[in-house]
Specification:
The chain is α/β, with parallel strands linked by helices. The protein is about 40% helix and about 15% strand. It contains 11 helices and 16 strands. The strands form 4 sheets. It has a 7-stranded mixed β-sheet, sandwiched between helices. A 4-stranded mixed β-sheet has the order 11-8-9-14, covered by helices on one side. A 3-stranded antiparallel β-sheet has the order 1-2-3, with helices on one face. The model has no long low-confidence stretch (mean pLDDT about 95).
Length: about 350
C-alpha cells in the first residue's frame, strides 16, 4: 500500500485521518496520548485491529512523556491512560486485548521507569508489526476460498485502513489477486458513515481489482440475480460460540446470504475472539451520536427534531457464518469447540 494507516515517527504518532477520505489524504500528528484517544473516539482511525495498535502506541507514548515521574506516580499515570483508551470504543475487543498486552509488561518486570518506557515502546511496535504479518497469514489461508470469476460482496472496511496494514477481509482478496485470480468486488456503501463507499472503494481503487459500489439496500437484488457468489466481512468481536459483532448491516447481509445459498465468511485475527463472552447477547454494542444518521458531514438530511437510532454494530449468529478465516487457518463449525482449540 502507498499509504500508512498509522506509524510511530520519532516524537509523534501519525494517523491517516479517515474522516477526510476520499476527498483528502491528511495525516493527524498526535504528540500526546489524549489526541490518539480522541482520534479513536471520533473514528479518525477505525477498524478493530487498527484501534488496538493505536491504543498501544498511545499508552507507550504517554509512558515516554512521563519518564521523569517517580515509580508510583508513573504507575498511576499509566493506569489512567489505559482507562482513557479503554473508554474510547466499547465493542472492538482488539482494543482491550492490546491494552492488556501493554499492562502485561508491568507484570513481567520490576518498576524501573526508564526501562519500562523502552519496553512499552517496543511492545507497541511489536503489536504493530505482528498485525501486518497476521493479516498476510489471514490472506494466505483465505485465498483458496476465492474462485476465478467470482462476484464478492464486502461490507464496511476491513482492509489496510482498518489494520496496521494489508487487511483482514480485503487481505484475503489481495492475496487471491496476487496469485492471479480475477474477480469483481461489490462494495456495500455501509450507512451511516459510508466506510465502504468512502474507504473500501478508495483503498481498492489503488489496486487493479475491479469494483462496483452498492447502496446497502441493493445487495439482496444482486444476490437474486446471481451476481454475488460470496460475502466476506471483518469482525470487531467474536464470541465463544462464533456469534460475530461487526459493522451495522452485517447481520442483514448474512440473512440474505443464507436465503440465497451464498457462503458468508468472516476474516479476523485470533485477537478478535473473546472466549469470556459466551454469545452475541453478551457483546456490548456501541451507540453513537444520532447526528451521524440525521446529518452527513454537517448537513442535515432529515427534518429538524426527528429522532434516530444509531447502533454502530450488530451481531451475526454463528449459524449464518460458513467459515471464520484467521491467521491460524480456517475455522469451521462447531465454532464453540474449534475456536477454543485454536487459541
Amino acid at each position: 500500500m502507498k499509504f500508512k494507516t498509522i506509524e510511530w515517527k520519532n516524537d509523534c504518532v501519525r494517523i491517516l485521518d479517515q474522516r477526510r477520505l476520499p476527498q483528502e489524504v491528511r495525516y493527524l500528528v498526535c504528540r500526546d496520548a489524549s489526541s490518539i484517544a480522541q482520534a479513536i473516539r471520533t473514528m479518525a482511525i477505525r477498524g478493530a485491529p487498527a484501534i488496538g495498535v493505536a491504543a498501544a502506541m498511545g499508552i507507550a507514548f504517554a509512558a515516554k512523556k512521563n519518564l521523569f515521574l517517580p515509580p508510583q506516580a508513573f504507575l498511576k499515570s499509566f493506569e489512567k491512560i489505559c482507562d482513557k483508551m479503554r473508554k474510547t470504543r466499547p465493542t472492538a475487543v482488539n482494543l482491550f486485548w492490546a491494552i492488556n498486552r501493554m499492562k502485561g509488561i508491568f507484570n513481567e518486570s520490576s518498576l524501573d521507569v526508564k526501562k519500562m518506557g523502552v519496553r512499552l515502546e517496543k511492545e507497541a511496535l511489536k503489536i504493530y508489526s505482528e498485525d501486518i504479518e497476521i493479516n498476510r497469514k489471514i490472506g494466505e489461508h483465505g485465498k483458496d476460498l476465492i474462485k476465478n470469476g467470482s462476484g464478492i460482496l464486502t461490507h464496511c472496511n476491513a482492509g489496510a485502513l482498518a489494520t496496521a496494514g494489508y487487511g483482514t477481509a480485503l487481505g484475503v482478496l489481495y492475496a487471491a489477486w496476487a496469485e492471479g485470480k480475477r474477480f469483481h468486488v461489490y462494495v456495500d456503501e455501509t450507512r451511516p458513515m459510508l466506510q465502504g463507499a468512502r474507504l473500501t472503494a478508495w483503498e481498492l481503487r489503488q489496486t487493479k481489482i475491479p469494483i462496483t459500489v452498492l447502496t446497502d439496500n441493493m445487495a439482496g437484488w444482486l444476490m437474486s440475480q446471481q451476481k454475488i457468489n460470496m460475502v466476506i466481512v471483518g469482525a470487531d468481536r467474536i464470541a465463544r460460540n462464533g456469534d460475530t459483532a461487526n459493522k451495522i448491516g452485517t447481520y442483514g447481509l448474512a440473512v440474505l446470504s443464507k436465503y440465497h445459498h451464498i457462503p458468508f465468511y468472516v476474516a479476523a485475527p485470533m485477537s478478535t475472539i473473546d472466549l469470556t463472552v459466551a454469545s452475541g447477547r453478551d457483546i456490548p454494542i456501541e451507540e453513537r451520536d444520532i447526528k451521524e444518521v440525521t446529518h452527513f458531514r454537517g448537513y442535515p438530511v432529515t427534518p429538524k427534531g426527528v429522532k434516530a437510532y444509531n447502533p454502530a454494530f450488530d451481531v451475526t449468529p454463528y449459524s449464518l457464518i460458513h467459515t471464520i478465516i484467521t491467521e491460524k487457518g480456517l475455522i469451521r463449525k462447531p465454532f464453540h469447540k474449534n475456536l477454543k482449540k485454536c487459541l
